[in-house]
Amino acid sequence: MNILGIWDGHDAGAALLQDGAVRAAINEERLTRRKLEVQFPTRSIQACLAQAGLPPSAIDLVAVSTTDPAKTLGRWWPGSKERYYAVRRRKLAPGRLAMLTRAVKYRMTEWSPGPLSTTLSRIALRRLVDRHGLGRARLALVDHHEAHAAGAAWASGFNDCAVVTVDGLGDGVSATISTFRERRLQRILASPARASLGVFFEHVTSLLNMRELEDEGKVMALADYASPVADDDNPLLGFVRVRDGVIETNAPGHAQRRPLAAIHWRYANEQFAFMAQRVVERTFVALARDAVRLTGLRRLALAGGVASNVKATRMVRLLPELEDLYVFPHMGDGGLALGAAVLAALGTGEAVCGDLSRLDLGPEYAPPEIEGALTGSRLAAERPDDLPQCVADLLAAGRVVMWFQGRMEYGPRALGQRSVLARPDRPELRDRLNLVLKRRVWYQPFCPSMLESEAPRLLSDWTGSRNRAMTMAFEVGRDHRASLAGVISVDGTCRPQFVPDAETSAFAELLRRARQLWGAAAVLNTSFNIHGEPLVCSPAEAVDVFRRSGADALAIGPFLVHQPAPVAS
Asked: Which string of b and e fits 456-465 if b means at least 16 CB within 10 Å?
């Protein structure tokens, strides 16, 4: 069967399963160039079909998640979510009714789906699907958190495990605990949407004058620079707790902002971030422990937007009662399209191959297309016989190189297809990247990519390689912190990508050359974009960002381009 998963909310996208295997997956932001796109994923659908060489009429089943009233309203009145998107991303002034709008938004998103909202969602989606030439396909509506859980469970590689999902909210729920046994997923507990760890952290992010649903990683990074506050003195710990696998809060999510603001007024920003980060860590650990205790399963799979907090997932990974942990690599709502497709496939009896060991699931461009983009930009390019060696030599000399190779990555991380690279041992390169090239806050750390064989040597808390896609933090051994000085946080941790040593890609070969040149098969790897913009997808976008960024070189397909020298005045 050909099954198309669609997500038409925050970080919209599509994913295609062919005969139970992932054929293509992409998020709409990469194609519309609007970060975390919220509108219907028209271009993602077209891209998935194009990659598979399928006409729309070849799709047998379309799966979409989430039918709660707030999501249904957005399907009938797209302008409502468009305005919120513009205000949230600071593209539009909030206006006089901003506080009222925010309160209504948080109240409405807490409502559970009912027969009316489900029926209205089905009608709206049927019209949208038909408009895209998919009228032959059946339409399946699936639960928000079940889609999160399905993606994590089937991609984990576990025969059986507990599954925990934690996000803001969806379909009246903020978190779930499920079991995965004999290829069957069964929910055993759910936390109500009004008691949401994700919404709590959204409020904290917004109060710090950052963009909720986007800058939570900055809050986590800022927390490292705080003067620590003891748990006994942390007033935020009373906002969220876990009782027997269910999240409880001191007030509904829509009523938490005002008391949080009162506490924020008494503390420096970094201390407020630190205290909120402790809430996330303690809540996640408590949920994980309850999941193991209540299910009797010692392997755990995680998904949902809050699972992007790599400091919290590290604490879960190190729990003594846990045997193994897997974090779904596209853990936020952007991964719902794939989870919905998996659920729909299983509902038809289709066998699903959950292998996500490779995440290069987006578009690829042939050398003639790349050459056309370079020619049109009037950039002089060479075609070296050994591109990995040329790039390694540039990095060794302290240069910053943009790297565009193969199919684009699926998910929020750059994994060696659309990356910006530098030596990992030079803090001055990190600072140049943050302030000049990426144009983002100074305290946000970059990540390393390393060959898997380096991990036991470089990382003091290495526990295995199931999580290769920068989904959790690891502590760098004290003897090796100088060699990774540009990619570690002030607390000595990093968020690494692990590349299998047997991989034959140009990126793996570059890491092997790195070992010869600076003693560690590792590089600084950050996403190929300007901060606030999506990861680049096409050669033309790569060339545009290269010219605007001031990076030293661009390795794109088989070509190497150097930044033109400035014209003398």
From this structure: eebbeebbee
pLDDT, tens digit, 9 for 90 and up, residues 210-223: 999 999 999 999 99
In Å, the largest CA–CA distance within the chain is: 72
Q: Give 298-330 as a 3 state SS string.
A: CEEEEECHHHHCHHHHHHHHCCCCCCEEEECCC
Contact 530, 438 (CB under 8 A): yes
**How do 21-27 and 61-65 pair as beta strands?**
unpaired
Burial 344-355 (b: 16+ CB within 10 A, else e): bbbeeebebebe
Of the candidates 454, 466, 471, the one whose C-alpha atom is nearest the C-alpha of residue 514 is 454
**CB proximity list for 233: less than 8 A, separation 6 or greater:** none
Tell how strand 160-170 and strand 299-303 pair up: parallel
The reported pLDDT for the residue numbered 36 is 96
Pull the structure tokens for residue 520. 């560690």
Q: Classify 11 in phi/psi space as left (phi over 0), alpha (psi -120 to 50) or beta.
A: left
Tokens coding 320: 């003594």
Helix H segments across 171-318? 197-207, 216-223, 257-264, 269-295, 310-317
Residue 442 has phi, psi (to 5 degrees) of -70, -30
In which band, very low, low, confident or very high, does the pLDDT at 566 lie, cut at 50, 70 and 90?
A: low
Q: DSSP readout, 118-181?
A: HHHHHHHHHHHHHHTT-TTSEEEEE-HHHHHHHHHHHHS--SEEEEEEEEEEETTEEEEEEEEE
Which residues share a beta bridge with 402? 420, 554
d(CA 410, CA 226) in angstroms, rounded, equals: 33
**Within the chain, how many helices (H) and strands (E) appear?**
19, 22
Quick one: which of 220, 250, 248 has its CA closest to 444?
Answer: 220
First-to-last CA distance in the chain?
62
CA distances from 434 to 206, 431, 487 (A): 22, 5, 12
Report the C-alpha gap between 284 and 319 in whole angstroms.
Answer: 11
pTM: 0.96
Length of the chain: 569
Locate 315 and state its tokens. Answer: 């604490």
Which residue in this structure is represented by tokens 């920068």?
Answer: 470
Residue 332: CA atoms inside 13 Å, Cβ hemisphere, count? 22
Report the distance separating Cα 316 and Cα 299, nearest Å: 11
Identify which has the larger pLDDT, 85 or 486.
Answer: 486
Task: Determine the 3-state secondary structure of 54 from DSSP.
Answer: coil
pLDDT, mean of residues 238-265: 97
Residue in 327, 338, 384, 410 with CA at minimum distance from that of residue 509: 384
For the chain, give the mean pLDDT. Answer: 95
